[in-house]
């Protein structure tokens, strides 16, 4: 078998896909507004990282530590 297998890079905001990452980057910069890309990334990050699930809420009796200077 000759040739190499190329990985396709799909746009997370539409159905376009590109063989080259730079082409995908250009597509994102030209076709999608920056605010649209940022909103998508923030939603994705919130779905992946749920901070409240990692921390236990403080209890009423728990003593707060003094801030350091």
Layout of secondary structure:
Elements: E1 9-10, E2 17-18, H1 21-31, H2 34-48, H3 51-54
Antiparallel strand pairs: 1-2
Features:
mainly alpha, 2 strands, two-stranded antiparallel sheet, 69 residues
DSSP summary, beta strand count: 2
Low-confidence stretches: none
Strand content: 5-15%
Query: How much helical structure, as a percent, in the residues?
Result: 40-55%
Q: Summarize the biggest pleated sheet.
A: 2 strands, antiparallel
Question: Rg from C-alpha positions?
Answer: 21 Å
Shape: flat
The arrangement of helices and strands along the chain is EEHHH
Q: What class do helices, strands and sheet pairing give?
A: mainly alpha
Mean pLDDT: 76
- Order of strands across the biggest sheet? 1-2
If helices are DSSP runs of H or I spanning 4 or more residues, what is the number of helices? 3
Query: Distance between termini?
Result: 66 Å
């Amino acid at each position: 078998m000759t040739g190499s297998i190329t990985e396709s890079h799909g746009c997370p905001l539409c159905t376009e896909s590109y063989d080259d990452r730079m082409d995908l980057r250009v597509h994102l910069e030209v076709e999608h507004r920056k605010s649209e890309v940022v909103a998508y990334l923030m939603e994705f990050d919130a779905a992946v990282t749920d901070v409240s699930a990692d921390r236990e809420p403080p209890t009423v009796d728990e003593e707060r530590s003094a801030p350091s200077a």
